[in-house]
Structures are given as C-alpha cells and as structure tokens.
Amino acid sequence: MGCPGAGKGTQSAKLQEEFHLKHISTGDVLRAEIASGSELGKEIAGIINKGNLVPDELMISMLENIVKSTTKGIIFDGFPRTVAQAEALDAMMQRLQRDITEVIMIDLPESEVVSRIASRRQCRKCGEILHVTPGTEAKACPVCGGELYTRPDDTEERVKHRLEVYHTDTLPVKNYYQNSGKYVEIKGDQTPEKVFEDIVSVLKKVK
Ligand code: AMP
Questions:
Q1: Which pLDDT band holds residue 207 (cuts at 50, 70, 90)?
Q2: If you take atom 22 of ligand 1, which residue's CA is the nearest one?
C-alpha cells in the first residue's frame, strides 16, 4: 500500500525478482486492458485518466482470474484500495486457501508526491518505471529500448485529485489492517535501495 508515487511499483518489481513472486499491479492490469483497445478498456480509460478508482466489482472480478492462474506467492501492488476490496480479498483468499502474509505501507510525506510524480516516466513495452531529472529527458527505456511516456493521470491536477481519493477511499484500508498483526509501515522518503532493504528485513522476520 501507499499513496500515488510512494514507490509501490518500483519496490514490487524488485521483490518479484528477489523472491520469485508473482507481481500483480492492478494499475498495470487496467492499463493493459486499455492498450488492448477493447470497449471495457475505453470505459476504464475514462475513469483512470480522471484519477478516479474503477468500480470494486470490476476490479475484483478482473483480479480473481489472475490470482487463480498462479500458485506462486503474490505481491498485490495497488490493491486493495477500498475497504470493500479488502473484504473481497479476504473472502477470495479463503476460497482459494491462501493467506495474506503481510501488509506493507510505504509511507511518503505528501509534500513529496507531486514533485516525485512529475519526474516519473514509464516504459510502454516492459513497464519499467524511472525518474528523470530536468534537462536529461530520456526517450528510450534503459532496460528494453521501448518508448517512455508520462502517464495521463500523472499531471499535477490529476495527482492532487488522486491524493484526495486516496484519503477518502484508501486510507480506511489502513485501519482495516492495522490491528491484524500483519500491518507494517516503511518510510518512503529514503533511497529506493534503503526502502527495499527495510521491506526485505520485514519479510525475513515473517518467514
Ligand atoms: P497505479 O498504477 O497503482 O497508480 O493505478 C493507476 C490507476 O488505476 C488508479 O489511479 C486507479 O484509477 C486505477 N486503479 C489501480 N488499482 C485500482 C484498484 N485496486 N481499484 C480501483 N482502481 C484502481
């Protein structure tokens, strides 16, 4: 968990590699549906590009098929984002005889969010996320050479709206998990390497 720009995608990609997990980013799942050009994708684009959340039922039904398709451990990145999704996830995990191991909140001060997202670029091909410094704009992904783009929901106005949505809909999820004994907060305003180190040390204790 974490607000927009907290580093969920970056850290999940590193964790997937280190622990051989399946990384499910609901944002990437939705962006893939948009890229497919389907009618559903067009509907989803209208919602995401405004910085709103897609309806819970749609998100949950899209996710269940992906969860069923793997026996690996899973990192959910950007899910659950509402209490209804957290409840549905509990029910799904029970049905599939799986457990939630740990809920990790990457805590980033909001004063950092807008500037961090303004420098964010993503690769259309492999999904790599990177941050550019002004004047050194890269055109191609350093990993696969794919085209780098700025997400349409990463404009300052949209990011401010996404933060409001985060407060209203997603922060209650923190309360949902806080007393479960599985909830931990990691400081997000550190280098990506240090954030990763902190997450790994939490996960090693869980094992
Ligand atoms: P992300 O890539 O996690 O920043 O997500 C980008 C956008 O996709 C969000 O601002 C939402 O519009 C949508 N989205 C991603 N995950 C969810 C979710 N769990 N529930 C509803 N909408 C989501």
A1: low
A2: 53
Neighbours of 64 (CB within 10 A): 15
Read off the pLDDT of each residue in 30-54 and give the average, rounded to a whole number.
96
Would you say residue 75 has pLDDT above 70? yes
Residues 3-16 pLDDT 10s: 999 999 999 999 99
| Residue 81 CB less than 6 A away from ligand 1 | yes
CA 55 to chain centre: 16
169 pLDDT band (50/70/90 cuts)?
A: very high
Q: Where are the alpha helices (DSSP H) in the chain?
A: 8-19, 26-35, 39-48, 56-68, 83-95, 113-118, 156-165, 171-178, 192-206
To test ligand 1's pocket by mutation, which of 33, 48, 60, 163 has the most ligand atoms within 8 angstroms of CB?
48
What is the token pair recorded at 88?
A: 């549905």
What single letter denotes the amino acid at residue 13?
A
Does the CA dihedral 70-130-108-26 come out positive or negative? Answer: negative
Query: Over the stretch 145-168, which tens digit does the pLDDT of each residue have?
Result: 999 999 999 999 999 999 999 999
Give the Å distance between the CA of 23 and the centre of ligand 1. 15
Query: If you compute the radius of gyration of the chain from its CA atoms, what whole number of angstroms results?
Result: 17
- Known catalytic residues are 8, 81, 120, 151, 162
78 lines ligand 1 (CB under 6 A): yes
